Amino acid sequence: MSSPRELPEHIKAQLRSAGRETDTGGQAWKGRNLGEGTSHTHAFPQDDGATPAVLAEALDRFERGEIPEESIVDALAEVRLFVPVVAEVSQSQITDDGLVADKEADMALVSIEAPDGRKALPVFTSVDALSAWHDSARPVAADSRKVALSAVEDDNQLLVVNPGGDITFVVRRPALWAIAKGHRWRPSYSDPDVMTALEDCAKPDPQISSVGMFPGRGVGSRDRAGRMLPGGGPGPELSIELSVVRGLNQEELDRVVGAFQRNFSQHSLLAERVDSADIRIRPAG
Length: 285
Hints:
The chain has helices at 9-18, 53-63, 69-76, 127-133, 144-153, 173-181, 192-202, 250-265, 268-273; strands spanning 80-94, 100-109, 112-113, 119-123, 138-143, 158-161, 169-171, 208-215, 221-222, 228-229, 238-244, 277-283.
């Protein structure tokens, strides 16, 4: 049940003011020299490039299973992150010897592909983590809210924190939007408003006795050692259970599920707060 979502109006408004002539830190690309040193120093001159202390502590506790995934999203809010940029040839020419020579190069944000094919922006908590992932990328520092706005502007559905590291944490779309808005995020599977909305979707169909929700199979992630972590996965993060009256044949079951999915897809709150979901059916009683 994953599909592209229309951006909320408040996100659209902030993007209109963000422009496309700057990096995620709000610094103009024009006239920038990214060839010497690390490009994060202009915006954060006192920054040593290490993972911010509040985020490092949260990641340690998350790895030990002491805090849920929303605590990591809380810790990501308003901290400095690094976005990788790489040189991208914008103009080239053929020399007299028939060789291709680069004439101009622009700096471009890097995007990666999530397991379900969606576009994701990789971000890093430290310079070392970024360099270990891509040794030719340059780190551009920005606070997390600007990073989130930049990700949305570039049609990224996810943030991937420290890909290839000991812990890789995926910030799913609703959490990404929450960071961009400066709001706290609550996972859909524990959100009472989501539960109410699901009940509204099921209410028109007399064949549905009740609806329940649980964490989906894609909520968790694994660290580099293969240990399961209580969040940070790419989804689906919500599992919906429909209890239906007994005795329905397959055609009738397909109709029930199809009608529920249509109601789900048209519900504005669910569109904003649920990233991806799956549905399971069980007999009522």
